[in-house]
């Protein structure tokens, strides 16, 4: 279910990129302060806060969330291990999508450098992503082969 | 109090707020702020703080004084102080967090961010907008679309209060 949620979010992001929305202020707080606050809020609450404004939506997509150790601590054995791996893979995937959103924001903030930034990122991504994806697939396969 | 400042021989600093009020504090108190510490290391004893207003600066100096004298024995006292410190309005918290960010006081920054996070995490998006003074720039259709895509996150009742 959560995976479905994510793909839909990504679709929305793409639409936003096409529209090239202007950035607005983050209330009266600076970006790094707001992101520092976001990093302390659970993912579910953060998803809800995405509708606050477009800027918040972008900031929330950009934060490196420190996951609270709710599911994996206190449990031992194979199931938590699998859960953890799935979660980690999900995070990895998310980071990939986040980085693309970040480039978009760079462009908004620094329109002068935007072209260069984007060009660099275009050059960079094809090299790194297939490698990452292969790695992710490989680890999850290994985990599941261990289950079966 | 004397024991913690003995080695520094009570060097004094003057902090000047954005509204031109001046505050004299001990160097040992001020250097808990990375920003002030860097200036002190460069030989400054007069520190203008153009981004920090008097109201926030008074509270922050109180905080720094309290935490400069941290020992095992007054641990409880400091905890009570911290609790009172963050028990204020959102607007005050935002002003304090901006000042703490500018002054680079990491323990204060952590405390304030955690407080704000805890206080907004169960609130409705509408309440959060009002608290942060944000105008929603989504069209109703766009907002409905996001809500629909993340329906799970919008299940249940949320806190509509603004405090």
TrEMBL record, chain A:
Pfam families, per database record: F-box
Query: What are the boundaries of the region Disordered?
Result: 1-21
SUPFAM superfamilies named among the record's database cross-references: F-box domain (SSF81383)
- Xref: InterPro entries: F-box-like_dom_sf, F-box_dom
The record ties this protein, via Gene3D superfamilies, to:
1.20.1280.50
> Which residue range or ranges hold the F-box domain?
23-70
Q: What is this protein called?
A: F-box domain-containing protein
Q: What is the lineage of its organism?
A: Eukaryota, Viridiplantae, Streptophyta, Embryophyta, Tracheophyta
From TrEMBL, chain B:
Per UniProt, residues of the SKP1 component POZ domain are 11-69
Provide this UniProt record's keywords sorted from A to Z: Ubl conjugation pathway
Instruction: Give the pathway listed in the UniProt entry for this protein.
Output: Protein modification; protein ubiquitination
Q: Which Pfam families match?
A: Skp1, Skp1_POZ
Q: Which SUPFAM superfamilies match?
A: POZ domain, Skp1 dimerisation domain-like
Chain ranges of the SKP1 component dimerisation domain? 108-153
Give the residues annotated as coiled coil: none
Describe, as the record does, how this protein assembles with itself and its partners.
Part of a SCF (SKP1-cullin-F-box) protein ligase complex.
Q: Please give the function described in this protein's UniProt entry.
A: Involved in ubiquitination and subsequent proteasomal degradation of target proteins. Together with CUL1, RBX1 and a F-box protein, it forms a SCF E3 ubiquitin ligase complex. The functional specificity of this complex depends on the type of F-box protein. In the SCF complex, it serves as an adapter that links the F-box protein to CUL1.
Q: Which family does it belong to?
A: Belongs to the SKP1 family.
- By what name is this protein known? SKP1-like protein
The protein's organism comes out as: Datura stramonium
